[in-house]
Amino acid sequence: MKNHSKQLAGAVVAAAVVLAPALAQAGVRVCTFPGSPSTALDQTVAREAFKTAGFDVSFVREGIGEGDDDGVSLKELHKVLGKDCDVIAGFPRSSVADGSDSKLLFSAGYLRSGYVSVGLRDGTARASAPDVVAATYASPAQLIAVQQRDVELDLENTAESTVDAVANGHARRAIVWYPAVVAYRGKHPQQQFAVTPASSAYADWSLVFAFGPNSAAMLKRVDRALASMSADGRLAALTKDWALPADVKLTRTKPALKPAYLDGPAVRVADAGHFIKVDVSAATDDPAFNQAQVAHGKTLYASSCAKCHGPDLNGITAPALRGPAFAPTTKAHLTIGAVFNYMTTNMPADRPGKMRDQDYADIMAFLLRSNGYGVSTTKLTADVARASTTPLAARPAQ
Ligand code: HEC
Fold first, then answer.
1. Which end of the chain, N or C, is more open, meaning fewer C-beta atoms within 10 Å of its C-beta?
2. Ligand 1, from 294, 346, 355: best to mutate by most atoms within 8 Å of Cβ?
3. Residue with CA closest to ligand 1 atom 10
4. What is the domain range of residue 131?
5. Structure pTM?
6. Same domain as 104, residue 164
7. What are 172-183's pLDDT values in tens digits?
């Protein structure tokens, strides 16, 4: 959700300037995500909801920085709230990434939308296009796209260029968040797309307002306002162009964040079709690893994993890789070998299996260290990691 079109951001800034006179008093400062395709909607709903709740709003133009290529972290947003903004409009939440680990407070959702697969209306054009699926880099679209079998990926930097890849015939389909299609149609009204739902645990997202920890009272009023706007039809009217078309139904597939390593019968991991069977009955000793590996693994983690799993391993769009949420301290349900095998086959999700064996082993050393395992002088090899039947259980750091 972070890499949406920068060109659009320009258009949105222009719109905000036009609106400025009507919002002369400062009031509640509302930030939106730079370049998000839903910004126009986020501002419209914010204006109405906060007015209903009895607040004046002003829109902050550059409250949230562009971030780097990896988007904006929850920590940065937390910093922004209170300093430059009182509220972030257009915060995306889903069952796989709900931000509940952070200190932010969230309103009820005002738009439930989803990732969709878009192709051209005209079937002949679609058939002649190469079997390429376009997705926006480091967005949930990429995760959905990598779950599809036997397709070639075209990773684009913005949601707009992702839709463009279909429009200009470079890709047969694109996976995009539906509001990006709405925004694209706004700029290219002649373009017709066939929209179908993308069935994935990562497809279903709602937009909410995010508040800092001291804004509980304001949040309550805004939630009440949203409820009344929903009851009297105002919310539906404001969001009708952005909601999924009636014939595109979100199919909620359950995210399989945990069952990936459950012992007992093999469990299917999300839509990826990987089967992992784990036998934790024959626990052995901790695999040894050395400090140099931890350091190297940390560097690799920062460049290849942090954008999804979080700079501090606490999870962003992907699950946390440290602490009890990842590796329960008691009743461990995964082994080090199973995690290693899973990781070397499926991770990094944007380049599954593409790293060197020893690099994976070094990352494993870093993950073990981060979960409280002690360092030794023996180097961990991929073979040893793969064969380890030791249950992975987070320990108090030593
Ligand atoms: C593009 C995003 C992305 C990147 C990059 C990425 N991952 Fe993941 N990772 C995911 C998602 C999403 C899941 C959950 C998949 C599922 O359960 O279907 C996941 C799951 C995992 C899991 C299992 C966690 C659990 O509790 O089930 C491990 C371990 C893991 N990743 C390690 C890594 C490592 C190590 C790297 C870097 C080498 C990495 N990942 C890079 C998205 C990513």
1. C
2. 346
3. 318
4. 113-197
5. 0.53
6. no
7. 889 988 989 998
